Amino acid sequence: MQTNPQTDSDLSFDDFKADVINDYKIAVTSRECSLLGRREVLTGKAKFGIFGDGKEIPQLAWAKAFKNGDWRSGYYRDQTFMMAIGKLTIQQFFAGLYGHTDLASEPMSAGRQMGGHFGTHSLNEDGSWKNLTAQKNSSPDISPTAGQMPRLLGLAQASKVFRNVKGIENKTDFSINGNEVAWGTIGNASTSEGLFWETINAAGVLQVPMVINIWDDEYGISVHARHQTTKENISEILKGFQRTEDEKGYEILRVNGWDYAALIETYQKAGAIAREEHVPVMIHVLQLTQPQGHSTSGSHERYKSEERLQWEREFDCNVKMREWILENNFATEEELSEMEKSIKKEVRDGKKAAWQAFLDPQKQEQEEAVTLLGNLAESSANKNFIEKIKTDLASEKEPLRRDIAGAARKALRYVVSEDSSEKRQLIDWIDNYIETIQPKYSAHLYSEAKENAKTISEIKPTYDSSAEEVDGRVVLRDNFDAIFNKHPEVLIFGEDAGKIGDVNQGLEGMQEKYGELRVSDAGIREATILGQGIGMAMRGLRPIAEIQYLDYVLYCLQIMSDDLVTVRYRTNGTQKAPLIVRTRGHRLEGIWHSGSQMGGLIHLLRGMYVLVPRNMTKAAGFYNTLLETDEPALIIECLNGYRLKEKLPTNLGEFRTPIGVVETVKEGTDITLVSYGSTLRIVQEAAKELQQVGIDAEVIDVQSLLPLDLNQDLVESVKKTNRLLVIDEDVPGGASAYILQEIVDNQNGYRYLDSKPQALAARPHRPAYGTDGDYFSKPSTEDVFEKVYAIMHETNPDDFPKLR
Ligand SMILES: Cc1ncc(C[n+]2csc(CCOP(=O)(O)OP(=O)(O)O)c2C)c(N)n1
Ligand SMILES: [Mg+2]
User: Fold this and answer.
1) 3-state DSSP assignment of residue 374
2) CA distances from residue 345 to 29, 51, 90, 425, 667 in whole angstroms, order as listed
3) How many CA atoms lie less than 13 Å away from 617 in the CB half-sphere?
4) Which atom of ligand 1 is nearest to the CA of 50?
C-alpha cells in the first residue's frame, strides 16, 4: 500500500518515491521490450508480435493490489503486469517471442504459445501441486478473444467454495479462507463476445471475488468502438449491474489509464471489495492507446485519423506518468533520461542473451549433423549429393531444427543401397534426435504423472446375493452419494442439478444432504458452466460440470476445445484442470435429444478423455476412476438408460471402470461387432437374433473413445473371427470410421480379414421427432442383422442365401 504519502503513515515519503520510480522503471522496461520486440519480428527473428505498449500504467497499479494466492485470467496485453509481479524477465519476454522450447528459458509455455500468452507454474516437475497460496498465479492465456472469461469465473468461484464449504479448510495450499481474488483482463472490443456477457451475468449472480479489467483503447484491431459497443461505452451500458444498498450486483469503477495516482487508488479499492466482501468488481480503464498499433501484422496509420494519432501520442500512459513524476519532483529530467538510457541497454542485452540461448543448442545440433553428413559423404558413392546437403546445412547461420532433421533424413535416400558404419551412425543419430526433440513439441497432451488414468486398474462392482434390481439412475445417485462423502473437494453444478437432483434424478436428494454450494443449480449458460469447472479444477477442487444434454455441449465445445483440453499441453505440463464433464445423450427422440456427435467431439477434444459407458454402473465406475486421477474427461451417460434396471452394487464409490479398456460382452467366432453407448444394446439384440440363424457374433463394447483400446484387444477378436463390423449412431465417417481405422490400420487388423471391414452408422441427418424417427435414422436391430447377414452371405451363400 502506498497510495497517498500524506495519509499513509506506514510509508515514508522516500519509500513512496522509490516505489514510484521503480514502477516507472518497469513501465519503461516493458515499453522498450515492445519496441524492440516489434523490430525482432520485422527483421524475421520472431514470427509474430503482439505487445502491451500503451497499457503499462494500469498494470502497475493492478500488480500492487494483486496478492499471493490471487489469480489472473487475461489476454496478450499484460506483459507489464507479469513483469511487475516478478514473473517475466526481459530475457524470458524475448524467449517467448522466439518460441524457445526450453521451459527454463521460456517459462510461460516453452514455446508452445506465441509471445504475450502468459501463465505461471502450478505443478512441480513430478506433476504434484505447488503451494499456490504462497505465489502469484496466472492461468494460461488462450488466443480466442474473451475465451479467458469463463475460466475467470471458476477461478473466482473457487474462493467462495473454499470460504464456505466444510471439510476443505485444511487445503491451505489452494486457499486461505477464500481470500484470493481472481483478476481478469479483456480488451474493449472483445466485450462484444457472448462469453463476456455470459460471464458478467454469472459472476453477478454467484457473487464471487472477481475483478474484471477492461482495457479500453477504443479499437479492436482496426474496428472502432462505434461498430463494437452500444453507446461506445461498455461501463455505461453495464450500469444496471451496479449493486445498490438493497440489491446485489457489481461495483463498477471507471478510471483513466494514464492517471497513475487515480489508478492506484482504484485498484486498492477494487481488491478490497472483492477480497473482503466477495463482490465482483468491474474496472473500466479508459483512454488507453496503442503506440505501435495492434500487432506486428499491420500499421494503425491505415485506420486512425491524424487527430487520434496525435492524441495517442499525448496521452500515452508512460508519457503521462513521466510528466507526473516531474511535476511532483520525484525525479529530475536528467535522472529519468539516464534511467531510460540504461534500460534501453538492459533490454538490448536481454534480447541478445535470449537469442543466444535460443540458438546455441540448435547450433550444437547442426554441428553434430554436419559432422555425420561429412563422414557419410566420404564413405558413399553418392558423395557429391551428400556433400551438397552438408554444405547447405553448414551454411545456415541460424539453423532451425527442421533444417537439421530434414538434411539428415534426406541424405539417407542417397545411401539406400549402401551399408557402412557412417550410415548406421547417422541413422542412430536421427532416431535419437527425433526421440529427444519430438517431446519438446508433443509432450504433456495427457498427464505424465503417476496418477495417470491409464495406470488405475479395474475394481469390479460387488453384489449381495440378494442384490436389488433398481433403475439405473439409482445406481448413479447412490454412487454420487458415496463420492460426495468420500471426497469433500468434489462439487457438481448444472442446469437443474441442484434442487430437483438433475433432470433424470441421478442427484436426487444430494443438495439437501451436501448443501447448495456442492450440488447446485446453474443458469442456462453452458460455456460458463464449463468455465466454472476449469477455474475450480485449476485451484485444486474436483468439479463436475453438468451439461444437461449432449446436444448442448456445442455451446461449450469451444471452451472445451480451446481451453480445457489444451491446458496441460499449452503450459508444457505446468498446469492442469482435471475437470469432469457430465452429460447425457445418444438415441432418444428428436433432433435435439438424440445427439451422438462423437466423431466431432473426439476430434476436437484431444487432450481429455471421452467416455461412453453403456449403462449407469459403468458410468458410475468411470466417475470413481477419474477421481483417482488428474485428467479431464467427458462422460456421456445413455439418455435412454436411466429407467432400465441394473443391480445395485455394494461397493459404491469404490468400484472402477478402467479407462481405455474394451469389454467383450458376448463371445463369438464368425464376426466381430464393435460398438458403444446406447447402440450397444441394439447390437446385443441383433447378435441374439443372428445366433438363431447360425451366425455366432462376438460383441465388443469399446467404452472409451479417447483413449481407445490401449491394450489393442480389438485386433485379437478380428484374428479369431476374420470379419469386422463397427456400428454406431454417429454420422457416416464419424466415430465408427475412427474405430475402424484403429483396428484396420493401427492394429494391423487388415492382415486377418477375410471380408471387407465395414462401418454401419446413422443417416447423415438428425432423427425426426416421433418414435419412428429413431428407426429410420439410426441403425436398428434389423439394420445390424441384415448388414451382418450380407457379409456372411458373401462368404457362404449356401448356408446364408440372399435375404432380399
Ligand atoms: C474469437 C476471435 N476472433 C478474432 C480474433 C482476432 N483478434 C485478435 S485481437 C482482436 C481485437 C481485440 O481487440 P480488443 O479486445 O479491443 O483488444 P486490444 O487488442 O485492443 O487490446 C481480434 C479481432 C481472435 N483472436 N479471437
Ligand atoms: Mg481495444
Assistant:
1) helix
2) 10, 19, 11, 45, 74
3) 18
4) 19
Ligand 1, from 145, 196, 219, 288: best to mutate by most atoms within 8 Å of Cβ?
A: 145
Q: Which residue has the cell 438493497?
A: 246
pLDDT digits (tens, 9 = 90+) for 123-136: 999 999 999 999 99
Return the HEC string of 570-605.
Answer: HCCCCCCCCCEEEEEECCCCCCCCCCCCHHHHHHHC
Sheet holding 251-256: strands in order across? Answer: 137-138, 71-73, 182-187, 210-215, 281-286, 251-256
The whole-number pLDDT of residue 6 equals 46
Mean pLDDT, residues 434-445:
97
- H-type helices in 580-713, by residue range? 598-604, 616-626, 679-692
The phi-psi region of residue 231 (left if phi > 0; otherwise alpha if psi is between -120 and 50; otherwise beta) is: left
Residue found under cell 440363424: 693
Alpha carbons 216 and 227: distance in angstroms, whole number? 14
C-alpha cell at 112: 508452445
Distances in whole angstroms, Cα of residue 28 to Cα of each of 54, 79, 671:
11, 12, 72
Q: How far apart are CA 220 and CA 75, in angstroms?
A: 13
Determine which of 231-245, 446-460, 522-536 has the lowest per-residue pLDDT on average: 446-460
Q: How many CB atoms lie within 10 A of CB 440?
A: 16
Place of cell 441403425: 779
Element (H, E) at 636: strand 633-638
DSSP character at residue 768? P
- Alpha carbon of 117 to ligand 1 centroid (Å): 13
- Whole-angstrom CA distances from 711 to 165, 328, 658, 706, 715 are 41, 72, 12, 13, 10
State how far the Cα of 433 lies from the Cα of 437, in Å rounded to an integer.
Answer: 6
- Indicate if 793 belongs to the active site: no
Ligand nearest to the CA of 219: 2
* Residue from 224, 487, 593, 765 carrying the catalytic annotation: 593
Length of the chain: 804
In tens, the pLDDT along 669-695 reads 999 999 999 999 999 999 999 999 999
Q: pTM for the full model?
A: 0.97
The preferred substitution site among 48, 190, 217 for testing ligand 1, maximizing ligand atoms within 8 Å of CB, is 190
pLDDT of residue 9: 53
Upper half-sphere CA count for residue 759 (Cβ side, 13 Å): 20
Instruction: State the pLDDT at residue 448.
Output: 87
Q: Which of 567, 548, 443 is nearest to 122 (CA)?
A: 567
What is the rounded CA–CA span in Å between residue 787 and residue 726? 11
> What are 254's strand-pairing partners?
284
Q: Are 211 and 284 in contact (CB under 8 A)?
A: no
Residue showing cell 444434454: 549
